[in-house]
Specification:
rod-shaped; 2 helices; single chain
Length: about 90
């Protein structure tokens, strides 16, 4: 989760820096607005990609955790059956 925050912070910083660079660059207003719109779309796409990567990571961790939990339950059942078998001898 911390790496997701770092990525989001980096992407946000890059977007803010790019927009400030555009705003302070000498250019016509219409060109500046187009550049801002383009950079905003790039930022939006980067945020979507980062969020999708984060979701994929969470899903992978969830599946790993549930798989391990299922394995532990099966091991516990097997141990319980073995103990019951030993006690019933």
């Amino acid at each position: 989760m911390k790496s997701g925050n770092v990525v989001l912070g980096i992407v946000s910083g890059l977007a803010v820096g790019a927009i400030l660079g555009i705003l302070f660059a000498p250019d016509k207003g219409s060109n500046t607005r187009k550049k801002i719109a383009r950079k905003s779309n790039e930022f939006k796409d980067n945020v979507k990609e980062s969020f999708n990567d984060f979701l994929t990571s969470v899903e992978d961790q969830y599946h790993n955790l549930t798989s391990k939990a299922e394995d532990m339950v099966e091991d516990g059942k097997a141990n319980l059956e073995r103990i019951n078998h030993e006690l019933n001898k």
